[in-house]
Amino acid sequence: MSEWKAKRFWAEAHVTETEGGFGIFLDTRPVKTPGKAALVVPSRAMAAAIAAEWDAQQDEIRPLTMPVTRAANAAIDKVTPQHAEVADMIAAYGDADLLCYRADAPEGLVARHAAEWDPLLDWAEAALGARLVPVVGVIHKPQDPRALAALSGRVHEMDPFTLTAFHDLVGLSGSLIIGFAARMNHRTPETLWAASRIDETWQEEMWGVDEEARQMALAKRNQFMDAKRFHDLVSAPDKPALGS
């Protein structure tokens, strides 16, 4: 039996300002999340991006081509009802941050880690009030609880839509600090993604390219870029006035 697939049934997707933000309509039907909640987002720019994704669908609806819609669904259905748990999970990356675990050899890789990662740790101390200390090897060494508390507090302050994007920025890169650097535009997302892939890039340079691994890395890179775009759409202009 062939799998049932959702078909396009609307002529046009459009944005409408509504209570709490902006909704998306397919002709006269409001878009809802998989959990049947109203798909209401915090900025007109985000709503317009979602409407564009729906309008880009052809005969069959292909959710994998709709990253903004999927992230908004996750923010409403998954992150909002368990905000504290998600924030705790993300903040925990600080105690085992990618940037803190360094190779002891070869010399070229050691130097590359220091050149790319030390400035990010220095930036985090200055911008976030949290100094994470690098170690050599892969054995876990706890970080200063005061630094972790400072980082965790910033994560818990994020609204559900921002936290949804931040979840992917951190999880895909393996670094809470890289996530903050992307969020605060400290470096371009392309540069930050490259910084998170130093070990993998080194392996490719030494041993050649594994095509399957490269395709997986490309997919993750695209997801990282999608997360950064979603993050920026959260605070894009044209938010409704409070109380409107």
In short:
The chain has two domains: 13-69, ATP12-like, CATH 3.30.2180.10; 82-234, ATP12-like fold (Orthogonal Bundle). Helix content is 54%, strand content 8%.
Please give a handful of descriptors for the protein shown.
single chain; 244 residues; alpha+beta; ATP12-like; ATP12-like fold; 2 domains; 4-stranded antiparallel sheet; two-stranded parallel ribbon; 10 helices; 8% strand; globular
Written overview of the protein:
By secondary structure, the chain is of the alpha+beta class. The protein folds into 2 domains: 13-69, ATP12-like, CATH 3.30.2180.10; 82-234, Orthogonal Bundle (ATP12-like fold). Helices cover 54% and strands 8% of the residues. It is built from 10 helices and 6 strands. Strands 1, 2, 3 and 4 form a 4-stranded antiparallel sheet that branches. A two-stranded parallel sheet has the order 5-6. A hairpin with a 2-residue loop joins strand 1 (13-18) and strand 2. The longest helix is centred in the last third of the chain and has 24 residues, at 211-234. The termini are far apart.
